[in-house]
Amino acid sequence: MSMWQQIINYIYRYPRKKLSEIHRFGGWNEWIGMNNGQRAMMAASKNLVVKPPAIAHATYPVYFLTGKKYWYQTVFCAYSLQKQCEHVSFHFYIIDDGTFDDELVQLCNMQLTNSTFASSHEIEYRIQSALPMAKYPFLNHKRLVYKHIRKLTDVHAGLSGYKLLLDSDMLFWGTPHLMLHWLSAPANPFFIIDSDTAYGYPLEYMNELCQEIVYPRLNVGAIGLSSSNIDFDKLEYWGKMLEQKHGTSYYLEQALTAMLVGSKPCTIGSTEQYIVYPSAEEVHNPMAVLHHYVDVSKKYYYTHAWRLAGIT
Asked: What is the pTM of this model?
């Protein structure tokens, strides 16, 4: 990038983009309120401790890819899940996104008393073995510039068995019976339905590449996949071809996941119970068991939802 491009970005493009975002969230007052709520949520998260119930009929594994930027959301999501499952315990597997330090590791162990932490050093060693650079240059490059891809590589490469990975920016409002049933005996992929198709690439081309008809609205906020069944050779090829033909996309990882799932039989959370992009009315009076706060619904997440989850 030239010096003049940097100057133009600094004095024009970046401010214009920020103003557009503020307008999208309702203006300055709404923006300030949202940011104040976010800071309050960060402070409140430090008081959370997620403990398994005294009597648990089962213990299920749940995975998070997280780090410094998202830890406060992760602990709230884990807290809300355990709160809604009175006689079920969860063992949380925390996958370092590369930003954990000793202080955050200690906080993780204190706040998630039933957890296992996978450090970036452990993960890098496993990735080098399972996805060597010479064979997987695309995936290795994307891990460095696009952390979302780590929800596939770092969570699954070199491992086996089904894993349920949750995004941090979610809260549970009821017992997720379908999800628990899947966790008790996973035999096919699990996912929730997006509010719209969000892959960043044409469905027709995705179908052509994977030679299946992909589900049009798969959302990776709660995604259960078998590590053993992930074909990283295909991911390497698909990802490279998608970007060569249609450019980069924020939603690449979601597109690749949809292609992996293809048209296989799945366990799918209903849009009534597992809501992506909840409305203001739903946030203030939750009827679903799960909310995934994407896009503008993050405003309600920061200003209201986390308080309603039980922490003030």
From this structure: 0.93
3-class secondary structure for the chain?
CCHHHHHHHHHHHHHHHHHHHHHHCCCHHHHHHHHHHHHHHHHHHCCCCECCCCCCCEEEEEEEEECCCCHHHHHHHHHHHHHCCCCEEEEEEEEECCCCCHHHHHHHHHHECCEEEECHHHHHHHHHHHCCCCCCHHHHHHHHHCHHHHHHHHHHCCCCCEEEEECCCEEECCCCHHHHHHHHCCCCCEEEECCCCCCCCCHHHHHHHHCCCCCCCEEEEEEEEEHHHCCHHHHHHHHHHHHHHHCCCCCHHHHHHHHHHCCCCCEEECCCCEEECCCHHHHHCCCCCEEECCHHHHHHHHHHHHHHCCCC
Write the pLDDT tens digit of every residue in 24-78: 766 778 889 999 999 999 999 999 999 999 898 999 999 999 999 999 999 999 9
pLDDT (tens digit per residue) in 152-177: 999 999 999 999 999 999 999 999 99
- The rounded distance, in Å, linking the Cα atoms of 105 and 119 is 9
Q: 62 has which bridge partners?
A: 92
**The token pair that represents 236 in the structure block:** 């390497």
**In the sheet where 290-292 sits, what is the strand order?**
170-172, 290-292, 274-276
Residue type, 156: H
